[in-house]
Amino acid sequence: MTATTTSVHPAPPEGVAALEVDALRFDYPDGTPSLQGLSLRVEPGEKVALIGPNGAGKSTLLLNLNGILRGQSGAVRVFGETLSDATVRSIRGRVGLLFSNPDDQLFSPTVYEDVAYGPLHMGLPLDEVRERTQDALAAVGMEAFADRPPHRLSLGQKKRVAIATVLSMGTPLLALDEPSANLDPLARRELIALLDRLPLTILVATHDLAMVADLLPRSVLLDGGEVVADRPSAEVLNDGPLLAAHGLEPLSAHGHPHA
Ligand SMILES: Nc1ncnc2c1ncn2[C@@H]1O[C@H](COP(=O)(O)OP(=O)(O)OP(=O)(O)O)[C@@H](O)[C@H]1O
Ligand SMILES: [Mg+2]
Fold first, then answer.
1. What span, in angstroms and rounded, lies between the C-alpha atoms of 38 and 49?
2. Domain assignment present for 106
3. Of 77, 63, 65, 71, nearest in space to 26 by CA
4. What is the rounded average pLDDT of the residues 195-213?
5. What is the pTM of this model?
6. Which residues contact residue 255 at a Cβ distance below 8 angstroms, ignoring those fewer than 6 apart?
């Protein structure tokens, strides 16, 4: 995995946040308000959970981080660089975004080409593209499927390949939407171990609160497009009334042994 952790960008200066979201407002074109002046700061190397009920704004926030969606007001800064038309390309080289639906991520004729796409389009030398692609496929246990068309995979296999397409980019910030959804227990366990090992800044939108407990020390709870809590995960996950007020359940309600 060493190759996938290197960034094409130089290290940011001391004191610069990995991510700053400043009073971000986003309404969908049909008028649905989604983010209501949301602010969030994430330091380099932090691993942060974004939790909250369906429709809270988690996916919308992640899509705003690399300019796929652009807020009507407010700002997004990634390692000190403010998202704009002029910086969107550069910012996409810093934020690896995993879509919640892997079909939105996979478009090439083969698994290999999908995973190689990012590094290839970053203009990296071919041997580095090959190394990153192989490392990323190995990290998700999909080397044997390199020549398969992505649409002929199971949902969980697609999810693994989609994760590999993000890892191969080598971005310093990973924004992952439901990365553990549809993974079998072993693949889920391996994903958690992998994300735990990566010395990157990681933001994970998820309903998998057991993964939050195991991997992500800080939890940002969203509801109605706003941050309603931002505290250590151990506190948030044990705050039954807070969770219940926002459509969530403590881990014990899932029968999880970590409760
Ligand atoms: N394409 C869209 N057009 C209009 N409204 C949308 C669209 N996508 C999402 N929304 C609305 O934006 C709000 C935030 O949705 P979002 O998908 O960000 O929620 P989420 O927290 O990711 O939920 P989930 O847990 O279901 O993934 C919701 O009110 C949702 O209905
Ligand atoms: Mg979502």
1. 15
2. yes
3. 71
4. 96
5. 0.92
6. none
> Which residue's CA is minimally distant from atom 18 of ligand 1?
57
pLDDT at position 1 is 40
What pLDDT score does 119 carry?
A: 95
Tell me what pLDDT residue 242 has: 97
Counting ligand 1 atoms within 8 A of each CB, the residue from 21, 25, 26, 28 with the most, and so the one to mutate, is 28
Cα 172 to averaged position of ligand 1 atoms, centre (Å) = 26
- Percentage of the chain modeled with pLDDT above 90: 90
- 259 in any annotated domain: no
Residues lining ligand 1, judged by CB closer than 6 Å?
28, 30, 32, 34, 52, 54-60
The answer to whether the beta carbons of residues 131 and 138 sit under 8 Å apart is no
In a domain, 243, yes or no: yes
The domain containing residue 149 runs over which residues? 2-250
Sorted by sequence, the CB contacts under 8 Å of residue 220 that are 6+ apart come out as 40, 48, 49, 50, 51, 227, 229, 230
CATH number of the structural domain spanning residue 188 = 3.40.50.300
Q: What is the pLDDT of residues 24-79, one digit of tens each?
A: 999 999 999 999 999 999 999 999 999 999 999 999 999 999 999 999 999 999 99
What is the domain count for the chain?
A: 1
Ligand 1: centre distance to CA 225 (Å): 9
Q: Which atom of ligand 1 is nearest to the CA of 62?
A: 18
Residue 257 falls inside a structural domain: no
